[in-house]
Amino acid sequence: DAQVKGKGSLSFFRPEMDARYVEEQKLRAALRQAVEDEALQVVYQPMYTVDGSRIECMEALVRWKHPEKGMIAPNVFIPMAEEMGIISSITRFVLERASRDCAAWEQPAAVSVNLSAHDLLTPDIVGDILGILARTGLPPWRLHVELTESCFIDDPAAVSKVLHQLREKGVTIAIDDFGTGFSSLSYLTSLPLDIVKVDRAFIRDINHDPRQMKLLKGIAQLSRDLALRIVIEGVETQEQLQLIKENRFADLIQGYVFAPPVDAETATRMLRASGQAVAVKASRKR
Ligand code: C2E
Ligand code: MG
Ligand code: MG
Ligand code: MG
């Protein structure tokens, strides 16, 4: 408010700017309300083994359906929530929901939750996470947390400490959107990581661009050498999948080629089917 009206420069103020500002404030108010009411949803996107036979993990992705505007993308409202200082409420909500859902699944798949930079610098984030796990009955080894390179920039030492503590309890640590940030690669060895999630930017043109092939080959080799598991995100086509398979670029695949994000009920069904697929294959072998 003060930012816009404060300078006494109303004469420079164009009406359409004012309108946009009011819209933005309305959206923020609606988001605050949705968070308070716990009106957000959580959907799940499976990470499959490369052959598509088994789901190892489900990524929890938050959804916000605005009462009038419909679905708002997390790429829009997550940064907003970070600015508003309410991201930790969203994180806690998603963690709680995801842990509860995962604990109820009959299959021992893991669930993966995205953390924001701010979350990792919240005092006692480790205690909060362990508290949620205890309350929901999910063993720590079934929780993955995903962080982006931007999480390390502000205070790498503090973040490293948090990750070590989580990992000591059995939580799996994944680096998300790998290769899209600006941080140095040295964190790959200095931080306690388990999984590299390669951003879809690295596979989008893989079937047409030989340089992209080489880049992905390099990333895969580096990750292997560092004993990190590789998830490739955003795999959309059979052609991409085929190349990834042939070159052994990934351990797990997350993308529309196998499944989009789905609601919790569908996720439960997919997990059941995923277990059966393995059982059928195993029995055929005998
Ligand atoms: P992300 O963590 O990298 O999640 C993957 C995004 O890629 C998801 O978008 C997913 O729907 C999309 N995706 C998956 N497969 C494909 C594919 O084959 N093709 C294409 N084009 N896209 C695919 P979504 O759900 O819109 O989320 C966007 C981003 O918002 C996430 O990127 C993550 O950074 C953030 N986000 C989502 N949920 C949360 C959350 O609970 N907490 C935090 N802090 N961030 C979240
Ligand atoms: Mg993610
Ligand atoms: Mg990602
Ligand atoms: Mg992302």
From TrEMBL:
The chain holds residues 474 to 759 of 764 of the full protein. It comes from the Bacteria. Signal peptide: none annotated. This is Sensory box/GGDEF family protein. It comes from Pseudorhizobium banfieldiae. Residues 24-275 form the EAL domain. The lineage of its organism: Bacteria, Pseudomonadati, Pseudomonadota, Alphaproteobacteria, Hyphomicrobiales.
